[in-house]
Structure to design on (242 residues):
């Protein structure tokens, strides 16, 4: 088992070293692209079993986004869905003999966290404009600007550490048990590791959604105060007349 703090370089493309984690990441990206191309061909108004399963997945994803953020899912469906599927397949890639999940390596989790950090900026500016995005750091008041700026960095770092720690620890525990007790004993641990991989992918995607919508909402202008109602007019002489 390789140390998660070191990368195994397989070959070089020019001066750029290509590690096993990068090669596995490219393979997962290729699977996602080809899978999306093949599964979304020949969609019809009368869905067959394949299309029904796909629509069920999309509806479930939309429901999770709507219930988590209260926002319409359409602008975020592509990014959050792709993020979830990539992390899920990466975590479950340990089922393939000889492969270690790329999410058990520092560089992959750091890249995913940086991607979420940049997406918060992108969706924040697109949803509230540049001034709105900058105004989100002043919520609830200007005194919080330094803390909010620091929070935007630390929460991204916490996502990276959480994903790396959970996936890496699962890989290490299964490797140690397999080396000591043979191949059959770690099977329950592998099942637990699959569940952990699913939960970690879900948490990472949900946290990304929460951070994005919080930035968009904080950047929205405050609603104008309601106009004061006109003073109650006293009845005139004509009103009193029958």
């Amino acid at each position: 088992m390789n140390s998660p703090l070191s990368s195994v370089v397989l070959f070089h493309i020019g001066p750029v070293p290509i590690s096993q984690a990068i090669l596995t990441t490219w393979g997962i990206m290729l699977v996602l692209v080809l899978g999306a191309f093949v599964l979304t061909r020949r969609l019809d108004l009368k869905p067959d079993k394949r299309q029904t399963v796909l629509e069920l997945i999309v509806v479930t994803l939309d429901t999770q986004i709507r219930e988590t953020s209260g926002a319409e899912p359409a602008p975020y469906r592509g990014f959050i869905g792709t993020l979830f599927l990539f992390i899920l397949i990466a975590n479950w890639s340990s089922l393939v003999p000889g492969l270690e999940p790329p999410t058990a390596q520092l560089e992959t989790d750091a890249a995913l966290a940086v991607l979420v950090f940049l997406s918060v900026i992108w969706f924040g500016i697109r949803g509230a404009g540049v001034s709105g995005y900058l105004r989100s750091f002043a919520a609830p008041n200007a005194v919080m600007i330094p803390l909010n700026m620091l929070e935007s960095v630390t929460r991204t770092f916490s996502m990276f550490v959480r994903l790396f720690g959970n996936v890496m620890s699962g890989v290490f525990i299964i490797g140690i048990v397999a080396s000591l007790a043979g191949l059959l004993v770690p099977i329950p641990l592998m099942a637990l590791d699959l569940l952990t991989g699913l939960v970690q992918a879900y948490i990472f995607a949900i946290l990304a959604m929460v951070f994005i919508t919080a930035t968009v909402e904080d950047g929205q202008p405050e609603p104008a105060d309601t106009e004061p109602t006109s003073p109650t007019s006293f009845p005139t002489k004509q009103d009193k007349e029958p």
